[in-house]
Design a protein that fits this description.
The complex is a heterodimer of chains A (430) and B (279). Chain A has 430 residues and is mainly beta. Chain A has helices at residues 2-17, 20-23, 113-117, 365-368; strands at 32-33, 51-54, 60-68, 72-81, 89-103, 110-112, 135-141, 146-167, 173-191, 194-203, 208-216, 223-224, 229-231, 239-241, 243-253, 262-273, 278-287, 291-293, 299-309, 315-322, 338-342, 377-387, 397-409. Chain A has a single domain (2-160, 180-259, 308-412), classed as Distorted Sandwich (Beta-galactosidase, Chain A, domain 5). Chain A is built from 4 helices and 23 strands. Chain B is globular. Chain B has helices spanning 18-25, 35-41, 93-103, 184-195, 201-210; strands spanning 8-9, 75-77, 122-128, 144-151, 156-163, 168-175, 222-228, 248-255, 260-262, 266-269, 274-277. The chains are: A mainly beta (430), B alpha+beta (279). Strand 7 (135-141) of chain A pairs parallel with strand 2 of chain B.
Chain lengths: 430, 279
């Protein structure tokens, strides 16, 4: 049995995580036991060891981690250190999952995987074959009353970081290219037949990718009919029930060490035709009060630092990059793609929030986003995936991912990966 | 499976369980899962330790790991231990034990009842508190811990925020209608009630089939995962309307070293010790 498991785990993990190029002998690619507080590189996690890594291209990431019974993997004090930056730049006070809501199209059942079961409560051991070249860290999980090898941190290649043929004054081409990599951090939770991978990729260009992978098995008991399921197996008899995974993340920003970030919404609209093409005009809308919003064509949001600027004197910011999402319109709280709320310590889960200290405020994020002035914004990102099963989803189900990214916008004057020879080409006129 | 028995058993027999799914959908007799299903759904052994490369807290570089994975060495960090921690890292067992003890100190919550009706509250979970943020400055060196209890005597959730450094309870918050994940004890109690209930007929029958004649008499024969059920958060029939004000639990149920038995349609009300069903 165990062997079966191991092979399966390897199969699902390998496509994303194997990194043959970085495994052997790469000292920079390895996790290191972090220096203690006070050094430039490592987050101050107190007596706990910070999760700190410098990627091969010179970008450093550092953070504290722990496991919560309900939320599962909790990352705190996340800091980004671009190459050449003397100090790490603080980005997030904390980043966690905030709900996984799984209703079935048949109308017969629904699960709230964080609030009713818990991702830490169901965290399982990660084996070395799932974490090649990486570091597996254990934590005591109170509800399980045992220690679980709960966290993998490793490095994975991400292909081209950039490529450019640059010509000098003699017309001679020089090719600049580099391969990029990510610090990959994940935990695994088993909820019944489903297995979830809670993963964060921290790229060497500063991009943060949050993603949730679902694998394991389709519900073995949920079969439905035409319109609410999809026939799997021979013929058209057994319709595995379609269902939703609405995943929420909660992001508590602490940009450049301050909670007082600003939030902005940008929309780009057609504004007539120019001589050679259509004119598109981008406008900025400050988000001064709590927000419940949906995506729209060419709409995006960013969180802007009030405490730090790059060397071009542009305020540092992080842009929310959404990917495809189908919001679930049968619950109020899943009907919006994004919420921004004023920070409250007791507001932790996007629904089924069960902190008595928040009693009387309602139990879901749609109730909290009620127009309060934002001085310490917390972002709640909802990504919905409507899963209509297919033949290929049978055992073990190929992992399906959903998530979003945070991309640095003006955090540094140029990319931290820009080669030294080109670093003078900042702005117009070169 | 009888009309009363709502548990649906999982696929059996080769052929990827198609026969079973048909049986389930058709409401036919309960059949039990196959070796194939068992092979893929068995839990990892909680105590399983299939690799021996455990480094100390400072990690052991170059630990062998499993070389047949073909991907280089894996380092392992042990869980932090001891009662004296600071900052933002995993809670230790010693801290959790100490937090519970402080939360229950001086006969606190003596009037509360646990899931068996015994004296004192039902312990649910412990988590590190958010850093104090009263002035906007996040002071996160001190370890403040939240200990959650459920008081069955009053059907309410109780949170004690404990300062581990001073050994004191900083504040107590209570609320009704909030239902965090069930504890292992509550999960076991829910299974016990289900096994003894008329609505457990199907579960017992499926267990007998799965074990080739065994009788299901104890939760110990099952591998269980509890799911809290709150009608304020999801749809439910009128018969389960109390769930939310009451503490209710569904179960993922698996025969130990055997197949799943689907009991997710059944809801055990731990507050009034009854069993209902969703459909």
């Amino acid at each position: 049995m165990r062997t079966t498991h191991v092979r399966r785990a390897l199969g699902t993990a390998s496509a994303l995580l194997l990194l043959p190029a970085l495994v052997a002998g790469s000292t920079t690619g390895r996790a290191v036991a972090a220096p203690r507080a006070g050094t430039a590189a490592a987050a101050d996690c107190g007596t706990a060891t910070a999760l700190t890594r410098t990627l091969p291209n010179g970008t450093g990431w550092s953070m504290c981690w722990r496991m919560s019974g309900t939320k599962g993997l909790v990352l705190e004090k996340i800091a980004y250190r671009p190459r050449k930056e003397p100090q790490p730049l603080k980005v997030l006070n904390s980043a966690t999952l905030a709900q996984v809501n799984v209703p079935y199209d048949s109308g017969l059942t629904e699960y709230n995987d964080l609030s009713d079961i818990g991702f830490g409560n169901t965290a399982v051991d990660i084996g070395p074959e799932e974490c090649p070249g990486g570091t597996i860290s254990a934590a005591y999980i109170p509800q399980q009353e045992r220690t679980v090898k709960a966290l993998c941190a490793t490095t994975a290649p991400r292909g081209h970081a950039y490529r450019s043929d640059v010509y000098d004054e003699h017309g001679t081409a020089k090719k600049y290219t580099a391969q990029g990599s990510d610090l990959v951090v994940f935990s695994v939770s088993q909820l019944g037949w489903y297995e979830y991978v809670t993963q964060w990729n921290f790229s060497d260009d500063g991009t943060i990718t949050a993603k949730m992978g679902a694998t394991g098995d389709l519900s073995p008991g949920d079969y439905s009919g035409e319109g609410t399921g999809w026939p799997i197996g021979k013929g058209r008899h057994d319709h595995a029930t379609s269902h939703y995974h609405s995943v929420f993340w909660r992001l508590d920003f602490g940009l450049d060490g301050s909670n007082r970030a600003k939030v902005e919404q940008y929309d780009t609209k057609k504004a007539g035709r120019g001589a050679g093409s259509a004119v598109l005009k981008t406008t900025r809308t400050p988000v001064g009060r709590e927000l419940a919003a949906n995506s729209a064509l060419r709409r995006w949001w960013r969180v802007v630092s009030t405490a730090g600027k790059n060397t071009d004197r542009h305020p540092r910011s992080w842009e929310l990059v959404r990917q495809h999402s189908d919001r679930y319109d049968a619950h109020a709280y899943t009907s919006k793609d994004l919420y921004v709320t004023q920070y409250r310590a007791c507001e932790r889960l996007a629904s089924g929030n069960s902190d008595p200290a928040c009693h009387g405020r309602g139990t879901s994020v749609d109730k909290w986003a009620n127009g309060e002035t934002l001085t310490h914004p917390v972002m709640w990102v909802n990504v919905g995936f409507h899963h209509i099963p297919r033949d290929e989803d049978q055992t073990p189900m190929p992992i399906h991912w959903q998530g979003f990214q945070l991309a640095p916008r003006d955090v540094t004057a140029m990319s931290p990966l820009t080669p030294d020879e080109l670093s003078g080409r900042n702005g117009r006129g070169h | 499976m009888t009309d009363q028995g709502e548990s649906r058993s999982l696929p059996q027999k080769g052929g990827l369980g198609r026969g079973i799914k048909r049986a389930l959908w058709g409401g036919g007799t309960a059949v039990v899962a196959t070796a194939v299903m068992i092979g893929i759904t068995l839990p990892r052994d909680a105590s399983g330790d299939d690799h021996s490369t455990t480094g100390g807290p400072a990690a052991a570089p170059g630990a062998p790991g499993q070389q047949d994975a073909g991907s280089g060495d894996v380092t392992e960090n042990e869980a932090p231990e001891g009662a004296h921690q600071s900052g933002r890292g995993p809670l230790t067992k010693a801290e959790v034990d100490r937090a519970k003890s402080i939360a229950l100190g001086r006969d606190a919550l003596r009037s509360a009842q646990d899931v068996d009706g015994g004296r004192g509250p039902e312990y649910l979970d412990t988590d590190l508190a958010e850093p104090a943020d009263a002035t906007g400055a996040r002071t996160d060196r001190a370890r403040r811990v939240e200990v959650l209890f459920y008081d069955y005597g009053h059907d309410r959730l109780v949170k004690k925020t404990v300062d581990l450094a001073s050994g004191t309870v900083e504040r107590t918050d209570t609320a009704t209608g909030l239902q965090p994940p069930p504890s292992a004890d509550e999960t076991r109690e829910a299974a016990s009630l289900l096994i003894g209930d008329a609505l457990g007929t199907g579960l017992r029958a499926d267990f007998t089939a799965a074990t080739k004649g065994g009788d299901l008499t104890s939760p110990d024969q099952l591998r269980l995962r509890g799911i809290s059920f709150n009608t304020a958060e999801q749809s439910a029939p009128a018969g389960l309307a109390k769930c939310g004000r009451h503490r209710c639990v569904r179960l993922f149920t698996q025969v130990k070293d055997g197949p799943w038995i689907d009991t997710t349609n059944l809801v055990v009300d731990l507050s009034d010790r009854t069993v209902g069903r969703i459909h």
